[in-house]
TrEMBL record:
Protein family membership: Belongs to the AB hydrolase superfamily. AB hydrolase 4 family.
Coiled-coil regions, chain positions: none
Sample GO molecular function, one term: monoacylglycerol lipase activity
Protein name in UniProt: AB hydrolase-1 domain-containing protein
Listed InterPro entries: AB_hydrolase_1, AB_hydrolase_4_CS, AB_hydrolase_4_sf, AB_hydrolase_fold, ABHD4
Amino acid sequence: MQTQHTFTTNARPQRRVAQWLHEFEIPPYVPHRLLRGGHLQTLIGARPGQAVRPVAASHQRHQISLPDGDALVMHDDQPEGWTPQCGAVLMLHGICGCHAAPYMVRFQRRLGQLGIRTFRLDMRGCGDSAPLCRTITHAGRSEDVVAAIEFIARLIDDADSPIGAVGVSLGGNQLLLTAGRVGNGFHTPPLGWDRVGPILAVAPPLDLQLCSDAMQSARLRFYNWYFIKHLLRRASPQLRSREDYQQMLRLPRPRTLRHFDREFTAPLAGFESEQDYYGQASAAKVINDINVPTLVVTSDDDPLVPVESFAPVAQQSSDRETGSVRLHVSKGGGHHGYLKRDRTSWSDDLVSAFFKEAFASRA
């Protein structure tokens, strides 16, 4: 039996908050009976599994130039019979992901079946963006999300065409941070922002300091090793050619993500320290500024993102009439594992149902 906790923040909406957000019936989640527990769900859920390919009537690969000289690549999958009124969804991957991550492709397939156009973004240094970047992605790259939204809005130049967005893990934090920074004026509302919504963030590390604290546990040693190995291996040729990066490689190899953020992430991204990075890039501090209909989903046994990090969001308000952010805490699921009894992913069901109902409510 699923336990659901639903909260709303005391946001100050600058636009109409869709009533459906609080009435939306979240699909029930029943974990696989042999995969109970956060670690099992996380580890098994992260395995590639059966190869899946995007399904679309047409596929385009767009390049988004950024002010600092880097560029992002976005994969545009358009289903047969698509019209602007069918809507589009921007998709952001996690720390070790890219456009080809299994969950990204599964989301694309499910949304494509609904006639929704999707844009799978490769963040800096990830996937097809890697050869085009001298810098790295991180939790605070809201300016890159803004650039992607503006690109989509220019490409689909129709005021009646809704633009949704879904972000997983690190991508979820980037998405929420973007919405909050637009809401509080840190970012000027990008072109097409009035068309943005809804937003779905799955397993976002809202409070990077709390997540970093949790990762210090000896029980999470494997996760630290895995992430660090992947991040070092993924470094692009342009990044590897930088003298400061070469100097970093001469230092002792980091043992924890906090150590990695101190020696690599913070200096490469222009932060004074890992604490400065965590403080500026955590979406928790701007949740109350979000004025776009937003669903945040996590589980009560996520080993990487402590459920306690969502407590401030829950405590701010329970106003179902005007709140623009809804928090759902599932019983089980790990860190974006969510494997069901049939070993399919509950998050696929959630993404499909969420955007189907959201776009229908705007029609």
